[in-house]
């Protein structure tokens, strides 16, 4: 029997980027907030001298415990889904800060095309350009409407970038708050090659601070030290923007935020068309609590947002056969296959050093920046060279044909450890009627609740895009003048291993029509006015970028909507 606690005004489930931003904005406005986080507390001091590749990169110190809760996966409805027993394709964060602690810091705004993708595609190419079964839809908001929230998020996080406006991306109302990161020899080679080919390269917008910075909330952080321990690690300097060193301290300083760690929410309570609170388990003791609340915000990871709604019977579950329903619809991933590697016999680079968002990129083949009329795919990819810092356990580069073990392998990988550069793509992923999330009928977590089931595979659209873009990356790499170039130009069947990207999106998507979307542009559920679902679960498709910048902008818009709702309840428009 759950112990019933006194009612609270606002309850946030999940204290990552979305939950942290909302907590800061709501508490600054004078509202009392309780944040429930299923993992443990985290602080910068936890990462002092924690450059331990085995512990963090290989043994997943910051990630969710898959023996207690995981996801199941199948490529289609014709096969049985099986649980992900060990980490591979993506990494689900755990603890205060969530995935915002272990991210790399590459921070983009989605393109104007993304937010009106269906309308703009039809305007340029006609309805027949959208393949049957591709559930492409507009987001219910435009880039121009979202731009002020991008700006607010970037100033909070201290995003570093070039002062000049790049013509391939959405127009900015203000320059980045800090200048670009240092430019390495590899970046110079990439940018020079791209310019020679007529492209428009620029420094990757970075949440790794290029200089000391104090944000509008008074949070002061130090500049990046280029130690190369970003992805899968917390930042010991606080130079990488994450919720623990930016928004959560602001909320705590108000005295209006209470964070309860080790509090795993298992159910959302509701009656009469409104939510009334949640049930959660204290994970160390197993005690169950009922926490009533006037307003509930789901701000956890994509899979958990969808799963909580489905297990709580909130919203209409998506039916892939009829295409009706909304909860679980339009799951999308990221297409990272395709690229070109260069091996240098006569030039050495210090690629052991770097930062998660150190690099250069261009968008000439992203979104609809190029003509798709004769192509068998939509959208595209950000083409990039990054120098995140390659660590010794995982980094063993060798040209094709090199033995995978023994003396020759050792000698070759030592030779090329700092003589290897890579030009890669990060491609958009379009939604399909048969790609979705639902509850697994067989497998359950330690509390007896169904696991979330992922049904997904690469489509011809993705394979054609990789083939086309690999030609572009190869041309750039050849212009960078390595001794040898190797191209990756195909993808086949998606698998849950190896690691590819943690950029999962969709399942509780936003839009302007309640019949095709779960939430409005303020992340308010259409049919439950006091429930807001915030995060990348709201994306109707995934772009050719890392999702965090767009997630952050949407969280600031959601905060504005919630503040409006608290003054005058009802559906927001």
From TrEMBL:
Residues 142-332 form the Glucose-methanol-choline oxidoreductase N-terminal domain. This is GMC family oxidoreductase. It comes from the Bacteria. One of its GO terms (molecular function) is oxidoreductase activity, acting on CH-OH group of donors. Keywords: FAD, Flavoprotein, Oxidoreductase. The lineage of its organism: Bacteria, Bacillati, Bacillota, Bacilli, Bacillales. Residues 441-555 form the Glucose-methanol-choline oxidoreductase C-terminal domain. Belongs to the GMC oxidoreductase family. Coiled coil: none annotated.
